[in-house]
Write a structure and sequence with these properties.
This protein is mainly alpha-helical. The chain is 54% helix and 5% strand. It folds into 2 domains: 8-89 and 173-327, no CATH class; 93-170, 2-Layer Sandwich (Zincin-like), CATH 3.30.2010.10.
Length: 403
Amino acid sequence: MAAYGLYTHIQSNKRRSVVLLIGLFMLVYVLVYAGALVAEAMSVPNAPLDYLMRAAVYDFVKAAPFATVGAIVWIAIAYRFHQAMIDAITGATPVTRTEEPRLYNLLENLCISRGITMPTLRVADDEALNAFATGLNPKQYSITVTRGLMNALNDQELEAVLGHELTHIRNGDVRMLVIAVVIAGVVSFFGEMIFRLFFQASWYGGFGGFGGRRSRDDGERKGGGGAAIAIIIAIALVVLAWILAIVIRFALSRQREYLADSGSVELTKNPDAMIAALRKIEGRGELARANSAVMEMCIDNPRVGFSNLFDTHPSIEARCAALVKFAGGHDPGPLALDAPAPQGQIESAPQEGPWSNEPPPAGAPQGPWGPSPDQSGKPFLPGPSPLGDGNGGSDSGPWGPKR
């Protein structure tokens, strides 16, 4: 079904994400079958290919439940500890309103405006300009902002970035990305295990040197010569599963950045701030300590692949162009950042007014509220009360004789 508006696009992407994640999880079973095929080929090296394929299916049926349990345990561990692992990688720590009032108030105002539960706020002491959201449920949702981003952006631009990450949470992107990264980790783990199984077995005596080799009485057929072909098929399956896992992860990330940008504009009503924030972040978002999985969650991922095939985010140029076209923003082009003032050398404008530290100029006995009667430069003090002296005198005030 075609999508015609922001919310239908969100629903459409969610449905596609679920389908993609199901397909990603099925890759685990492809790897299990590839592992079974490698084991059979090394166990019965002289068997024909059709025998090895059937034997691998039999082994796969027996191993599938264990693979499923292993994947579920992996996901459960990630569900419980993924935030701690990400914090360990990025060095981010939770902050409160007292510690970061500016950042906290900006995010709280956005959440109140849409009735959204306030996510945990974290700050990473990194000079890079970036931010990302994490979490699998409302109790775990968190937004992390780097110190460099806070220093480089003004309030409107910082609010736009927070709106971007908050939109990722509202749209369910964060949950999908975390699950995709977790399952992709399972795929990588099984793939690496199969390669280690193959190369270690080859190192210790070729196909026939694999521990647990079947005897010829178990069904080995001489003269088949299908083991080499089976090994090639298994390796091809592993490589295919690994590539598909990467492509699916990238697709989940890339397709959502446009929606998050537009969602930020919807929250802040300020497309120019979102564009300016992206332009300042452009080329400055590299988190040196973060791995590729964390960078895929960021507002911008400057790590690019060949011919943009493996880029996880659209280019800043394309995102700004979309905001200009569909949100009416104005793109100033690439922006240079002002050098921060050295700490301890903050220049302040000279104070003016009655509390100025500057001495009054010579010959100007002027008080803050008008000329000083005694020419001393002290504040003007009124003379006798305009209502009289209080003793029945006949002095007149400024509004006529006293009655």
